[in-house]
């Protein structure tokens, strides 16, 4: 046996199997006790370490998480083309009430991670994924069977809460599977989901609604979600290293002591005197972690606010596209597309895909180059591409707004949207990967804190987005948004220079 627990455990054999008792000198926390096991000494080269898994095994887990992150984000906006039919069936005439079906889903995406991110750091990623996606699937069935707008809005909110795990935990799972030097392509692939989903959702839904009832939008999402959930139970494995280490520790105890080792697992990890009070403190500390990051760590607050702005920009554009391409209201110009109006979202989708490809390779080369030049790994290297993103973003906004204002060929605003999408994606990706690197092993909680801010923006901004475009017109509304991004252009460089000192001045110990 490879355990070196003689200082913390003693085993007394007897005819009925013996007992395992903690030593008074044993450490007080589970992490410290696990570290006494000799398998920790070889963890970096152990086959249990996800960094040492075969690429095929890591890729299967990563691709499944990327798909589920995409699915949750897609469902956030999938109701948009069906909304007129839903409102007509339920007798709703106020636009803002219909908008709540999307806004509250997005709010749920921000609220859920505050619970599920800490749970993933206690029980592992797979436990949370399987639990939440099972509930998410059931809620999609509930949406399809809704008999009132109030019921649909409430179910959409809870769908957002339970669908929040893949979009918020995915980056942490990618960091579990791949080292900092190799994770950029996978991280870019994952980030594509939360960006691409809201764009493709209306396109897919418009095709469904043109042939079926609006309820089939939710029946379709329920079927796809059920398939993804089944794969979670069949092919996925745990990726969070502290949980894997505890599992290996338990297996070694069981192998060495048999059933008594299994019964004594609770004593080996948390002694009898500690069990109640320490467990209570462990839960409260873990569950408060995202809130503490959001209120005490300036770097997390600044980057979370930055992320909220660019994510809110995406949802503002999503509210203006139906006005421009399907049914302009008031004095607003419209191209008056009908069944193909969903194609207007392709500009954003193409922009996200192009930016994902560029950052997957460009960020890796830049990061490895800076590591080689400076001789150390630093999360701040992830922030430099944000400068390019913040320059591209206002250019795309101006191109979109003024080409629509001047009634140019319909493809010109779509091209402008592609540039907007590129700027948003590069910024989104840089912030997410920075948070993973800077706050590991609590990266899930750090992303949860940032997710709350961005989802609040995604929830609130669409509520007045239509009114802004109606009041100012496409050109001036886009100009206001573009001017708001200009002061943010130097922020990535400022953070690159001072973020390290902020991290050292305000360290986070979990």
TrEMBL record:
Residues 1-14 have a biased composition (Low complexity). One of its GO terms (cellular component) is plasma membrane. Coiled coil: none annotated. InterPro entries: MFS (IPR011701), MFS_dom (IPR020846), MFS_trans_sf (IPR036259). It is a multi-pass membrane protein. PROSITE patterns: MFS. It is found in: Cell membrane. It holds the Pfam family MFS_1. It comes from the Eukaryota. Keywords: Cell membrane, Membrane, Transmembrane, Transmembrane helix, Transport. GO terms for molecular function: transmembrane transporter activity. Residues 61-502 form the Major facilitator superfamily (MFS) profile domain. SUPFAM superfamilies: MFS general substrate transporter. Residues 15-28 have a biased composition (Polar residues). Residues 1-34 are annotated as: Disordered. Belongs to the major facilitator superfamily. DHA1 family. Polyamines/proton antiporter (TC 2.A.1.2.16) subfamily. This is MFS general substrate transporter. It comes from Neolentinus lepideus HHB14362 ss-1.
